[in-house]
Amino acid sequence: MLTLRLIGFWKSEHDPTWPDPNAFVDNRWDTDERDVVAQYLRAGSLARVYLGWSYCRVCGAPNGDSEFTDGTYLWPEGLAHYVESHGVRLPAEFVEHAVSRMGDLEQAQVDRTWWARQRV
After folding, report:
1. Which structural domain range is residue 95 located in?
2. Percent of the chain predicted with pLDDT > 90
3. b (16+ CB within 10 A) / e for 89-101
4. Would you say the pTM of this structure is higher than 0.85?
5. DSSP state, residue 90
6. Segment 53-62 mean pLDDT
């Protein structure tokens, strides 16, 4: 059975034990790295959709109703908003994971032969 590591769920009235996103704000975080992480979060695979919206714990903006995954981590749809808009720096282990995966995709060789052989 697949186990996904939860990330990016924040303290609220309903979940007071989660971390506070304000504790993760890092205004000195390299903007290029931050943008790569936000792009990675937005590119996740849709895992679940819920009936109600989540709201940003920093600014109150509507922040999505879904969860995304990459097969290793599971995060709320709005996590990219925290990274982009508020400079919330996620744990180094996740940042390294996201940056590495994005780098692998950018450097990947593309095999066009399989698709070229397809016929109806």
Report:
1. 42-105
2. 93
3. bbeeebbebbeee
4. yes
5. P
6. 94
Alpha-carbon distance of 10 to 55, in angstroms, equals 10
Total count of residues recorded for the chain: 120
Mean pLDDT of 51-67: 94
Asked whether residue 12 is domain-assigned, the answer is no
Helix crossing, 92-107 with 31-42: angle to 10°? 80
How many other C-beta atoms can be found within 10 angstroms of the C-beta atom of residue 112?
7
C-alpha 84/C-alpha 31 separation (Å) is: 9
- Average pLDDT on 4-25 reads 95
Residue at 46: amino acid letter: L
CB 52 within 8 A of CB 43: no
Q: CA 38 to CA 50: how far, in whole Å?
A: 22
Question: What is the Cα–Cα distance from 42 to 39, expressed in whole angstroms?
Answer: 5
The answer to whether residue 79 is domain-embedded is: yes
Integer Rg of the chain from CA: 17
Q: What is the mean pLDDT of the chain?
A: 95
> Could you tell me the two tokens for 33?
């790295």
